[in-house]
Amino acid sequence: MTRNGRFLCAGGGGFPLELTSAGLHVLAMFFMLLDHMWAMVLPWNWMTCVGRLAFPVFAFMAVEGYFHTRSFRRYMLRLLLFAVISEIPFNLMYSGSVFYPYHQNVIWTFLLGLACIRLIEAAKATGKQWVYWIAAAAAVMVGFALGWLLMVDYYGAGVLTILVFYFFRGRKWWCLLGQALALYWINVGMLKGLCYTVSILGVELEIAQQGLAVLALVPIWLYRGKQGLRSKAFQYICYGFYPVHMLVLAGILRMMQR
What we know:
By secondary structure, the chain is mainly alpha-helical. The protein has helices at 21-40, 45-51, 54-68, 72-95, 106-124, 129-149, 155-167, 173-191, 217-221, 232-257; strands spanning 9-10, 18-19, 195-200, 203-208.
């Protein structure tokens, strides 16, 4: 937290606790680090459970970035640059080899999702509702299909998650409900994965590990549009964290295997 309290959270006259954009980025990086540490060096299940919260937060911030960037072209070029830079570290972490064409890093997922949003916004700008709805439906279907075909991280479900935060952007009750229901459907209905059986008062409940991603809405809903810490250095630390931490973890794993 900075001296004025606006790095991780801000209080004062309005809501008693609110996260800034910088705070959300720090939290998402922490969640991601835990998840990747679980996958690489410390197989403690609680780490990957907490790590489920990372992607929805990053997806939300990608959409916010779209609406707050001064230049969409520079925003996309910056993401493209770090997607390319991150591919070898991702391959090393994911498969242990420099070249692995069967799965791509998560920044490609953001690029696909943002391209879909750009298409929808262009259609919206025409002022014709039928053009907007056709473009929206096409973007959802094509984005979902490309997510699977290009084998980006989280596949088509990842692209849908980004679009959920686009279509339900705002703080109206139906936006928040839409986010919750859509994230539940994507993570529990589509992705699901490993399940835990929990006994409560003699009743056994099955909880999908991936479903814990819905809890990411807690920090997301604490965000009130404030940026917090503003500097180029912090911006590039956020971008650089992704490839650097994967390289470090891959190096640690290699040393442990010797």
